[in-house]
Amino acid sequence: MPAIELPTSLIPADGRFGCGPSKIRDEQLAFLSSLQPTVLGTSHRQAPVKNLVGSVREGLAQLFRAPEGYEILLANGGATTFWDSAVHSLISRRSQHLTFGEFGAKFGAAAAAAPFLEEPTIRKAEPGSRSELLPQAGVDVYAYPHNETSTGVMADVRRAAGDGVDPGALTVVDATSAAGGIDFDASETDVYYFSPQKNFASDGGLWFALVSPAAIERIEQQTNGDRYIPESLNLAGALSNSRLNQTLNTPALATLALMDEQVRWINDNGGLSWAAARTAESSGVLYEWAEKSEVATPFVADPQHRSQVVVTIDFDDSVDASAISKALRENGIVDTEPYRKLGRNQLRIATFTAIEPDDVRTLTGAIDYVLERL
Ligand SMILES: *Cc1c(COP(=O)(O)O)cnc(C)c1O
Prior knowledge:
By secondary structure, the protein is an alpha/beta fold. It has 2 domains: about 15-25 and about 270-374, Alpha-Beta Complex (Aspartate Aminotransferase, domain 1); about 25-270, 3-Layer(aba) Sandwich (Aspartate Aminotransferase, domain 2). The protein is about 35% helix and about 15% strand. The chain is built from 10 helices and 12 strands. The chain has helices at about 25-35, 45-65, 80-90, 100-115, 215-220, 235-245, 255-270, 270-290, 320-330, 355-374; strands at about 70-75, 95-100, 120-125, 140-145, 145-150, 155, 170-175, 190-195, 205-210, 295-300, 310-315, 345-350. It has a 7-stranded mixed sheet, with helices on both faces. It has a 3-stranded antiparallel sheet with strand order 10-11-12. Helix 4 (about 100-115) links the parallel strand 2 and strand 3 (about 120-125). It binds pyridoxal-5'-phosphate. Pyridoxal-5'-phosphate binds near residues 20, 80, 103, 149 and 204.
């Protein structure tokens, strides 16, 4: 028996509010089952799996309204592996990174550790706010997260532009927790990369990227043999394999299947603008709740910076936020704990596309109920 037992009316239909792995819809599981035995457990070099990969690539291009010449790449390893791939086969000499949380900082650290690159420029902002790009001669990659999952800060997708930006410099956006949940203009990026376990409600293990013709050209230049590049990190290989709906080594077929169904679901419902309206509704419910609350406040002070897919809510010292998460967890409402390294008295709640806005409304009632009884 939970110490605080929620009435059934305050238990969301689905209690998963984590930032990844995140809620998977039943329809995705049904689609996965439907691929038994024709696709699951069959060769990734044959048509059934290649067609599945092709469907995901086409669906993503449609979802992102991919401009002429942009392509969808994929490979094994997730966004973390993409950072290492970018360090080896995308950055020529020097990168600039906006860091306003854990994930932006990790890419910056990967570039800083590479002995063949110049020291990157790191533009850091305190967690809960964000920094801006600075035009800088000699920088050939400008990198930032579309959504910083560790803090719930969102940025606009804008190309590095203006005096002082070298011609040919690329804008590279970590969209792991944004893609499929926030609308954006693809022509404002050269590389928009992500893992599938957030708004795409799939499992981890792969990365996907929407890449511009300029990014493709850069990959081709960077991988011409002047620099040693481990084969699994070589983006030229990802490019040539992706064009054939293939991966260098075996991909997770279940991840692709869950992904395919989620992309189709979003496209069939109206695409990115529909998804963005849904996540804005869900996050709006939480921010409004926090602003009205006596004990809670949105962690991100500037409403313009507040994420519509990852909501962070601070509690004042009279409340132990970890006790709220614990009570919720005992009632089957999981993963509302804050990002572990942020170390705040906070709840972090995903409002990804798969999550029902009504479940978020129910969640606010559940939190109120717990607060009255702690
Ligand atoms: C989750 C996340 C990552 C890491 O993704 P992996 O699949 O674990 O490598 C990177 N960037 C952002 C913004 C994320 O939210």
